[in-house]
Amino acid sequence: MNKEDVYGPELDYIECEGCGWDIGLCVCGEKTKIYSLYKNGIHLHDFTSIKKCAEWLENLIGGSLYQGLCGLRNGWKPKEHSQLYGYEIKTTYSKD
Ligand SMILES: [Zn+2]
Fold this sequence. Notes:
Blueprint: H1 3-6, E1 33-39, E2 42-47, H2 50-61, H3 66-73, E3 87-93
Antiparallel strand pairs: 1-2, 1-3
Helix pairs in contact: 2-3
The structure holds zinc ion.
């Protein structure tokens, strides 16, 4: 069965890079890098790539955000006029 049949796009599906299952159902124990998006210290959503994060946030606030989000990941602090002001990206792993 195709994974898309199991998980609708509206569900919070994060694919393990090792086994391809949702990280909650991971069978391989592979560490998966997770990019957690925050705004003003509030956790919004988790992503497995900056690209997916950009797509999600662009749907929400518009614009072209990929470069900015890469900057956030690298510690850039947006100024008040920036569309990404108040946003933060923290990198974690699904397993320690
Ligand atoms: Zn896995």
